[in-house]
Amino acid sequence: GVKYKIGNIYLNPNAFCSVVENKQARIYDATYNVTYPYNAADAMAYGAEVTASGALLKDFYFFVGLSYNEYFFTEDLKTGSNSTIESKDKQVPDAPMYMAKAALSYTIADFVITPSIKYLSERYGDVLNEEEIDASTIVDLDVSYELKKVLGAKSVQLRVTATNLFNEEYISAINTAY
Predict the structure, then answer these.
(1) What pTM, to 2 d.p., does this model score?
(2) Which DSSP helix (H) or strand (E) runs through 144?
(3) Residue 63 class from Cβ within 10 Å (0-12 exposed, 13-18 middle, 19+ buried)?
(4) Which of the residues in the chain have pLDDT under 70?
């Protein structure tokens, strides 16, 4: 990755690639009619992320982040009964392909008001990519207040955060062991 500064704006594009061995996955073995954790899956991930942040005006800041993540199994998985689960090239469970986040911060007196929005694309809850988890968009609001010189500290920050303002129903994380 690199970081560029253009005026008051920072751009930070990154690319990544990783090879993962012994990835845990939850598999179903039809021969024994059981589901269990599989701890020897091989996977690969590659993608890119770009963020931009900075001051738009005095006391008005922004942040935007976009990412693409191709995270997939590199082989079919073998069950305890030696049957094959056709997982090769399937997206790893709980790995969204696209994510985005944006926030604006406005400072007035010693208050900072920050609305933000997060997007998570659809993802899967299983290794066969049959259990699709819907995409979600969540809006939050954060308000902080800074007190100067409190009990020997340079400053103390008080913060109130309201998450999921529009009460969006979504699945935040998937624990594939369950």
Answers:
(1) 0.85
(2) strand 136-150
(3) middle
(4) 175-178
